[in-house]
Design brief:
- The protein is an alpha/beta fold.
- Helix content is 52%, strand content 12%.
- It contains 9 helices and 5 strands, in the order βαβαααβαβαααβα.
- The chain has a 5-stranded parallel sheet with strand order 2-3-1-4-5, sandwiched between helices.
- Helix 1 (23-34) packs across helix 9 (163-181), helix 2 (41-49) crosses helix 4 (62-76) and helix 3 (53-60) packs across helix 4.
- The two termini are 23 Å apart.
- Bound molecules: shikimate-3-phosphate.
- Shikimate-3-phosphate is lined by residues 19-20, 23, 42, 53, 87-89, 127-129.
- Its cofactor is Mg(2+).
Length: 186
């Protein structure tokens, strides 16, 4: 797993998955448990434009959003000891995928379509990618993205898990990997 110079224990943790699966809330919890800083990549993009993602899409278009997303994530992923939540479309960009898999430990938050559907009303207004799409089209996007997210280091099936449980699972899994690959003497 450790393909670059950074010790595994210092690598940042990247959370990927479809929009609304809980990357931010679970990420914040993991950060708390590991005494690390949490960074939401979307918030960084929004800060750069001084507007919410939906307005960036509206004003400048998706291409400009994606360009900034790539620029920001290429820098963020190289930082150590962070917990980073990626926007659901970020992994579609090969450069982001590559830098993330090389520099970070990537966890895929895997939520079923059935569970995800129950959240749709909470997401639709703030997620430009969902707007104007039928449920059938959203399902197709969900399925299509699933294959992109298969490039990860570890996955968590979150359907039956509360935020704290998913975070605890990730922390436990990390500690196991650290102990196996970078055992400490004490
Ligand atoms: C997007 C997901 C959003 C945000 C933007 C585009 C996508 O992030 O980056 O609206 O293409 O899936 P979340 O996954 O945090 O909702």
């Amino acid at each position: 797993m450790s393909t670059n110079e950074t010790p595994l224990r210092q690598k940042s943790i990247a959370l990927i998955g479809f929009m609304g699966v809980g990357k931010t809330s679970i990420g914040k919890e993991v950060a708390k448990m590991l005494y690390r800083d949490f960074i939401d990549a979307d918030k960084e993009i929004e800060a750069a434009f001084h507007m919410p993602a939906s307005e960036i899409f509206q004003t400048y278009g998706e291409k400009v959003f994606r360009h900034k997303e790539k620029e920001i994530l290429q820098k963020l992923c190289k930082q150590k000891l962070k917990i980073i939540s990626l926007g659901g479309g970020a992994f579609l960009q090969e450069e982001i995928r590559n830098v993330c898999l090389e520099e970070c430990i990537v966890f895929y938050l895997d939520l079923s379509w059935e569970s995800w559907q129950e959240r749709i009303s909470l997401l639709i207004d703030s997620r430009p990618v969902l707007q104007g799409k039928s449920l059938k089209e959203i399902k197709a996007l969900f399925e299509e993205r699933k294959s992109i997210y298969q490039d990860h280091h570890s996955a968590v099936a979150t359907d039956q898990l509360m935020i704290e449980d998913a975070a605890a699972y990730i922390v436990k899994s990390l500690k196991t990997a650290w102990d196996i690959y970078e055992p400490q003497n004490n």
